[in-house]
Amino acid sequence: MKYRIVKRALAVSVAAAMTAGMLSGCGKKTETNEKGEEVVELVWYQVGDAQKDAPDVIEKVNEYTEEKIGVKIKVNNVAWGDYNQKMQVVINTGDDWDMCFTCSWANDYLQNAQKGAFLELDDLLKEEGKEIYDTIDERFWEAAKVGGKTYGVPSEKEIGSCPMWVFTKEYVDKYNIPYEEIETLEDLEPWLKVIKENEPDVVPFYLTKDYSAPTYMDKIQDPVGIEYGDDTLTVKNVFETDRMKSTLKTMRKYYEAGYINKDAATATDDKSIKRFVTKGDGQPYAELTWGKVLGYEVVASPIMDTQVTNASARGALTAINKNSAHPEKAMEFLNLVNTDEYLRNLLNYGIEGVHWTKAEPTAEEKAAAEGKDYIYDTKVKLEPAANKDYAVPYWVQGGLFNTYVLENEPLDKWNTFKEFNDASQEAPSFGFDFDLESVSTQVAGFRNVLDEFGKSLYTGSVDPDEYLPKLQEKLEATGIQEVIDEMQKQIDEWKATK
Amino acid sequence: MKQKKKKEKISFFTRVKTNKELLLLSLPGTAWFFLFAYLPLFGILVAFKKFRLTGSNFFTSLLSSEFVGFDNFKFLFSSGDAWIILRNTVLYNAAFIILGVVLPVIVALMLNELRNKGMAKIYQSSMFLPYFLSWVVVSYCVFAFLNPEKGYFNSVLAYFGIDGISWYTEKSMWPFIIIFMSQWKGVGYNTVVYLASICGINKTYYEAAVLDGASKWQQIKYITLPLLKPVITILLIMAVGGIFKSDFGLFYQLPQDSGPLYPVTNVLDTYIFRALKTNGELGMSSAAALFQSTVGFILIMIANKLVSKVDSENALF
Amino acid sequence: MSSKREERKKAKMIDKMEAEVCEYNKVKKPTNAVLNVILAVMSLISILPFIFVVIISLTDEQTLAMNGYQFVPEKLSLYAYHYIISAGENILRSYGVTILVTIAGTVIGLFLTGTYAYALSRKTYAFKKFFTTVITIPMLFSGGMVANYLIVTKVLMLKDSIWALILPLCLNTFNVIVLRTFFKTTIPDSVVESAKIDGASEWRLFFKIVIPMAMPGLATIGLFLTLGYWNDWFNAMMYIDSQNLIPLQYLLIKIESSIDWLASNKAMMGINGIQIAQNMPKETIKMAIVVISTLPIIFAYPFFQRYFVNGLTIGAVKE
């Protein structure tokens, strides 16, 4: 008797679970907006933690876009550390998604495009996306091309990152250091010596395990790539270039002289350690961010001209699913996000009056910014309490240049970014994509070798005379020469078509 | 010939009939295994394919992707370190398998013999705690001890006038640290099975032994351990299947992914992780898993054969 | 009346006898002391990091940044717990999800594991070998994440459902085999046979005789299941999109994995990475989450421990 009840209960609950699942799967019903257009829902995967107030903001967004273009969005946020894994599964399963964030360092743009996950956007960009195609810097569009086709809408922001020496202002002032003239690693030496001799509590050259020595090369497939300025496009192993060899020797010299902290190869940034100089990857106004994190003022000087590479120009894009049911709508939506002032700022900062309020820039500022690009007549004052419930990484959703600047930022911030972008040089390899298919076995071996020796060598913790040959030997064992040859072959072909 | 077949058929049906009730008991579990374990098994195919998104979903894409034989497996052996990595994996696991039986059994016996049962419960509960901390959190705590600049260990050494050790580059210490930490984390959890088994032993055995004048030691040797043998054996057989797999966090997070330690911390799982970090080829990760599983499967079969020769009651099959 | 009294008397006597035997059979006091010392040291080593975590969660953020991890911090602060309480809703809801999933999962899991393992433990079961093979293969081979995702979301339709947190974990080969071994060693064949002769069905046998006798074994599996569910975050990462279905552990793991990822991609992300890292919860908050997500489960152990007493004796069952 009891057993029969158990059985029946089980049967009922299983059936209930099944139908519940089915219903949620087929619950979509068609809606129409006031214009009578059918409203479609687009699923958008974004990297970064979900915000507490996101549902409210998305509701506002939907109100607006539903009316304007007949689109509603559903945003799925995936935590930073899980994004790669989750997207690999979502994309390869052929799950229901329409748009997703992609770039060169998460949910890899190149590989997904090469493997056929994303939709070719070139036709859509002539119609639904014409506006953005015309407004966004053409170099971003060039970088977005894989094999001549475009697979993503770039978020317009800084096009390259610029390696910089970051000095603590206190010591720069104290010893009158002409920091702006310091460029190469070698230029640092006299000042490191000064600090070492006079400031016993200060680490002259503070490095952590994520440090990589200044590299004058586009490492297309780390450690293989093309040196900056090499117009002959000769593929090299970075550890065989003279520049890197001498850099590593200098690092070793500094390490032995006691300029570098002893635990550099394994250290994580310990902010309590006083340092004179360290290396950072910068962009306009980077000093402010570094200073804020450290709690004291810093100044910076670029190590080299900013170079535009595929990886750097693919800092943030949004792609459309190849199997999306509504590709035109998705493009229309992306176009709107990147051109519509109201929508862009709504997504960026949240709801006006709740998460932020408008702030009037001063007349002087306005006058100074007159005639420049990307100037808006309002700034944003964040509401500290509400803002923490809606703080999103801005470039995940769209370009930065049509967002308002924050109250404490210069009004012409985006104009400065634009100037920075225009001043950046294209690396000779810009536009070339390596298809690693035929050498994927060899490439798979690289990371293990690089991680084993890289940090120790870069920080000078080990003697390059002894360890560089070891590194080379292991790279050769994994077949680096085949990778170099293959890349050279591909780049020669690319050059011929250029 | 025909007759023989018929006979088998009949006997199969009768067997079903006589085992009807037990079959019914097996049914819910079998259904689960079918849905959650067997249906997805088709995914193994991807190990032999160059997976491209040609279709509208994984299944159709998989079928239409190009067959590449064993290409996806090559990367496992392409590195010059393949030998060291395999050696590390197997040796660490061998140590874990042996210690994973010996330590928990000893702890379970000790706990069982304590006179003060209240304390026994406290000990048991505290030894369970490490299981709840993730390797990331544990690695922070360990770092507080081993940190070359401010760590407790080096401070103690300095107190005695000994030079500090650069723990995260000095590889000779790490085999010991890794084995210690793995047991530290696992011993409480692993003890449970043995403790429960000891509780399950019929008390009358001990009573009889006491009447015969057996000492505590003799009771353990002649009653407890022999009665634990089935559990020990079965856990050993299953552990052998994991000989090529390892606890990723233990080998990656705990040593802070420090390069100079690779010769003693790089195991198959960390190698695969790093190899596929730059190259998210689905077929390669699948191939790696299939390789690990296949070796494990073969070893389990061998172990099972060996056990069933000696003592068929306690074998897996 | 009198017979009952006599019986009681008899029982008392047996108890007394047993107590004497027990006393005689205990380890000697010095041995006991040695065992206590060894176990106390082991316990201490085991608790130490947890105490450390508690202390760090109570350390002032600034002090932590300056001095690193210390057992005796210069300045204490309740900031982390204030922060968590102020963001309370989320955590409370996650608690709810975790508890629901853990209880439902353990119950379902025990039923599935128990029935399957019992059948395998029966010597007379003709399909023993077949059903053992059925579970051995998936112990080693798996179709991989993508195939699993496809089946769970597209065939079983469990995407973004609480069942996706419960069902994938409720059965595993290890538990079945361990429980099978328990059944085999603790339940004498004679008991099963005599029950069968009395005409009991297998189901009745299982529920009325096997379960009461194998309590320590079932408690072990119950404990394993409970811990498995409590510590699980992977299924949440894979199948859950709704914020209100996120279990406690994933809240924590999400932060850990993100911080780790940002640190290792620092060079690639430049300033952007630094800005994101600044918005991540600070160290002390992370540790406070570790504390509050671990505390409740610590009590699960004593709960199951209660059943680690000798299973009912044969006589008791027969009555």
Automatic annotation (TrEMBL), chain A:
Residues covered by the DUF3502 domain: 429-496
Gene3D superfamilies: Periplasmic binding protein-like II (3.40.190.10)
InterPro entries hit by this protein: Bact_solute-bd_prot1 (IPR050490), DUF3502 (IPR022627), SBP (IPR006059)
Pfam families per the UniProt record, alphabetical: DUF3502, SBP_bac_1
Keyword check for DNA-binding: no
Entry keyword set: Signal
Signal peptide start and end residues: 1-25
Top-level taxonomic group: Bacteria
Name of this chain's protein: ABC transporter substrate-binding protein
Organism of this sequence: Blautia celeris
UniProtKB/TrEMBL annotation, chain B:
Residue intervals passing through the bilayer: 21-48, 90-111, 123-146, 222-244, 282-303
Alphabetized UniProt keyword annotations: Cell membrane, Membrane, Transmembrane, Transmembrane helix, Transport
Protein name stated in the entry: Sugar ABC transporter permease
UniProt subcellular location: Cell membrane
Family matches, as InterPro entries: MetI-like, MetI-like_sf, UgpAE/MalFG_permease
Location of the ABC transmembrane type-1 domain: 86-303
Keyword hit for Cytoplasm: no
Predominant subcellular localization, coarse grouping: membrane
Classification via Gene3D superfamilies: MetI-like (1.10.3720.10)
PANTHER family for the chain: BLL4140 PROTEIN (PTHR43227)
Species, as recorded: Blautia celeris
Membrane topology: Multi-pass membrane protein
Superkingdom of the source species: Bacteria
Family indicated by similarity: Belongs to the binding-protein-dependent transport system permease family.
Automatic annotation (TrEMBL), chain C:
Keywords: Cell membrane, Membrane, Transmembrane, Transmembrane helix, Transport
Domain ABC transmembrane type-1: 95-301
InterPro entries: MetI-like (IPR000515), MetI-like_sf (IPR035906)
Subcellular location: Cell membrane
Top-rank taxon, per record: Bacteria
Coiled coil stretches, renumbered: none
SUPFAM superfamilies in UniProt: MetI-like (SSF161098)
Membrane topology, from the record: Multi-pass membrane protein
Residue ranges of the TM segments: 33-58, 95-118, 130-150, 162-183, 203-225, 284-304
Any Pfam family the entry gives: BPD_transp_1
CDD domains: TM_PBP2
Family named by the database record: Belongs to the binding-protein-dependent transport system permease family.
Protein name as catalogued: Carbohydrate ABC transporter permease
Organism: Blautia celeris
